[in-house]
Amino acid sequence: MIEPTRGQLERSLSQRLQALYREELGQQPSRITCQLFDNKLAAILEDSVTPAEQLIAQQGKAELTDQMRIELTEATKPHVKALIEEVLQVNVRDILSDTTLETGRRGIIAILETPPAVRSPNSNSRAQRE
To answer: What domains appear along the chain, each with residue ranges and CATH number?
Structure first.
């Protein structure tokens, strides 16, 4: 079996995270960027604030909105962890996540047990020439 490239894994993670947020929270982020750094994964979700969070924030209830974001993060954490482990085929040691209501961005950092197995993006083209 041919190992995926780092870019293929990052794109797959972005697509799967977008689907997870759409299905679990009813809010599809407009853009998700994933970047692998050895045994770390960083993901930035644009427009990730749910309509319920927006509604509560518009009513001036910042403390309630913060609590709701914390609860949503905790509720989705096992799903995000399982998705990352499935796509990357490595165990996740820890997940850190926070959302900025003002910008609508959510950041996720996953600490992986080991770096995922990836192939060089040029290795497939060399094999095809030979």
So the answer is: 6-120 (3.30.980)
